[in-house]
Amino acid sequence: MNAEVDVELREQIRKLCARYPSEYWQKCDRARVYPEKFVQELTDAGYLACLIPEQYGGAGLGIREAAVILEEIHRSGGNAAACHAQMYTMGTLLRHGSPEQKERWLTGIASGALRLQAFAVTEPDAGSDTASISTFAERKGDRYIVNGKKIFISRMQHSDLMVLLARTTPRADVEKRTQGLSVFVVDLRDAGDSVHVQPVDTMINHETNAVFFDDLEVPAENRIGEEGNGFSYILGGMNAERILLASESIGDASFFIDRCKRYANERVIFDRPIGQNQGIQFPIAGAYIRAQGAIAVRDRAVALYDAGEPCGAEANMSKFLASEVAWEAANVAMDTFGGYGMAEEFGIERKFREARLYLVAPVANNLVLSYVGQHVLGLPRSF
Description:
CATH topology of the largest domain: Butyryl-CoA Dehydrogenase, subunit A, domain 3
Largest sheet: 4 strands, mixed
CATH class of the largest domain: Mainly Alpha
Strand content: 15-25%
Number of helices: 12
Radius of gyration: 21 Å
Number of domains: 3
CATH superfamily of the largest domain: Butyryl-CoA Dehydrogenase, subunit A, domain 3
Shape: globular
């Protein structure tokens, strides 16, 4: 994407987000409701289908454009977590789905007739150890019967389809822990009582749930790729996820820095703007500098991903750096605004809570350190 297109896309997103000011997000946060109107407008404008090829009705754009969209939503004070999964779940379907599956689902997603917002991987007893999941899909004729449970599965109530990772071969029967896992697309509209959803209350308006499967029937034709190779399929989508979530954190950091700059110039105490004080100015400048570093690593990950090159290290490092600087900037904003940072009307306290999430989810930063230590630096596996 050239610079001119980048600027134009950012401006389009800013104009859309301007119709959803802080008051809109504060109202949604206070009531713990889904930002339906915002998500629908993003869908209608085609932004959530940006990664879907043109032949299926999407924009056929790259991860760069998707990253810009999410970054600008967060820089504008919004929260793309309500809908971002529809972008990164595309990776598994786009790269490993059959032509028939792509035609069946991608066309509806691109038009807005279908929503793919749920991504079911994490389990209560496995946590970040994905290879230890126990939800089992047993093959019976032309379908699979799924039983088990998942945790922290977001947007279930606002999704028609769900990407599900389940074990199809008992762990005791495979040589490697990552074998015997398969990926399915579940049509939640047909699930009935076989899927039970129990909301999990959290400190932010991020609708997430515990999900229980009780003899859920999934047609065999809904399995993505070969049986037993699902772990590798999911990993490919996770690189996109890391890059896109890094972009959201970069947007959050920019949100805090932008507002700190404005407030520090306007707020006058002891007959001088507080931004003149090094105790205010230097932390803002430090957060800005580190944000530029996160942007550089994110952009490197984007370039590799769009070129089809390996980018696991860059994707993980960009998520680490971006989430760390977003949290740093959130704390700087709290210090800059003082007591007003706690007041809902400024939007700082809401974004402060939201920025904390990406330090631990969807991958904890300690796991990123472990990945880099082992796979980049060649150190022994730490666990």
